[in-house]
Amino acid sequence: MKQSFGGAKVSKLQFAPVSRWEEAxxxxxGFNASDVRAWLAGLDCSxxxxxxxxxxxxxxxxxxxxxxxxxxxxxxxxxTADGFLKSRAxxxxxxxxxxxxxxxxxxxxxxxxxxxxxxxxMWKSYGALTFWKRGDGSPFARLAEALKEEPRYMRLLPxxxxxxxxxxxxxxxxxxxxxxxxxxxxxxxxxxxxxxYLG
Length: 199
Fold this sequence. Notes:
This protein is of the alpha+beta class. The protein has helices at residues 2-5, 33-41, 71-86, 92-103, 123-127, 139-149, 191-198; strands at 10-17, 25-27, 47-55, 60-68, 114-119, 129-133, 161-167, 173-178, 180-183, 186-189.
């Protein structure tokens, strides 16, 4: 995974209480690093979610993780934000290395636990669709079956759809790939892209 887009330049970071991405603090170039630290210090939640967004040679993508909220976790997020804000070349691999130093073990190894379809920053409020679990066979075939049960994903959507590939160990972490095409008034699920990535 790191070899496939570890060198991709990060365009923004975001941090969220637990998995409530609707409440995320979005950190883009020019953001004040002290505001990141103040926001983190004010969190009253059990876990912190962190994500890095970037472009690959194929599509927009993101990687993320969720860690127990603690002083050490807040410092990790603050240092990661500092590195992103100060460097013109902060890459996905830098984000991963910081997370691996925190966890003490490599991430994105072995077969993932599951895959989900969701809407970027509306993952919980719109409702994610788990379409594949370890051992299920072809992810694209499973997605096609799941969409028959959840046709709302085939309609006009209020945010870009994406799929996540998730690992539970050593801490919850994931990769995400946009499966979105622009449409008048919103977004549509790009089935051709889904088949390209999952088929």
